[in-house]
Amino acid sequence: MKKNAFIKVFGCLMACTLAVVLAACGSANNQSANQSSSTGGDSAQASTDAAATDDYTLVQDGKLTMISNFYFPPFVSMNSNGGDFEGFDVDVYKAVCDKLGLEPNILPSVQFDTIVPTIKQGGKADVSIGAITITDERQQEVDMTDPYMDSNQAIVVKKDATATDIDTLNVSGMQIAVQAGTTGEAWAKENLPNATVVPLDDIIQCLTGVQTGLYNAVVCDLPVAEYEINVAYSDLQITTEIPTGEQYGIVVSKDNPGLAKAINQALQELQDDGTMDELEQKWFGTTL
Asked: Which of 93, 166, 186, 258 is the most buried (most CB within 10 A)?
């Protein structure tokens, strides 16, 4: 074999050998890259899933800002001694904050019928809690969490009243007090159309008005009526329990679905660990 021919053959052999080596390396590198990509993908997905559980915004970082009408004991009220907020729902709210690792931030009392528009608009408060019934109408404007308590309505009159039920109250000239924007107002307007339904700012005004004879009756949430008659209005009585089958939920903006999801999880944990039972015993003397 001539020298030049030998060089050509040797060169071809080296080129083939190098190609095989590079192909093998390339295959190994691709396998490693694929494994890395798979592992990285799993990690990325895990991170995404973890972030999704806390995917919500807050008016103030680290705080869950709440508004309510604080004239609805025993759910939400203000302590007369120091003006602090208290009640069953205040305790539930604080327990939710604890579960979420957030600081409570309660704003001054607002009118009940401004709550849904305020949460819908955003920018002022993250949530509202305060015996707020889950209704289709409200859910068109805002999100509401899973229910945390059941309730009905009640008719309350003076103990010496002669008009005490739906038939005797549903006549011209009867004055029925209700808290504006509540399901009690909606029920009264629908079921007592011949009477005059008078919307007031809060339930205390309603009950006091019946007590003084200004109004003939009040329609309000049964747990509130029972509590108030027991602690402050002994001259009033519940004459009709109205089985409306209502459920209370926490109001959240539709723009903040991650917050509603996180609160639902917290509420479930509070049910599971017995906290809700403890709070019901504290404020109602029994589990509901």
From this structure: 93
Q: pLDDT for 230-250, tens place per residue?
A: 999 999 999 999 999 999 999
Beta carbons of 153 and 147 less than 8 angstroms apart: no
Measured CA to CA, the distance from residue 172 to residue 188 in angstroms comes to 14
Cα-trace Rg, the chain = 32
C-alpha 169/C-alpha 137 separation (Å) is: 27
Question: Alpha-carbon distance 259 to 255, whole Å?
Answer: 9
Return the H-helix or E-strand segment holding 47.
helix 3-53
Maximum C-alpha span of the chain: 131
Residue type present at position 179: Q
Which tens digit of pLDDT belongs to each residue from 87-142? 999 999 999 999 999 999 999 999 999 999 999 999 999 999 999 999 999 999 99
Please choose, from the candidates 185, 179, 277, 267, the residue with its C-alpha nearest in 3D space to the C-alpha of residue 228: 179
User: Rounded to whole angstroms, what are the CA distances from 66 to 25, 58, 99?
Assistant: 61, 11, 16
Closest C-alpha to 250, from 126, 100, 137, 77: 126
Q: What are phi and psi of 250, to 5 degrees?
A: -95, 135
CA dihedral for 162, 166, 168, 169, sign (positive or negative): positive
CB 251 within 8 A of CB 144: yes
Model's pTM, two decimal places?
0.78
Rounded CA separation 212/207 (Å): 9
Residue 48 has pLDDT above 80, yes or no: no
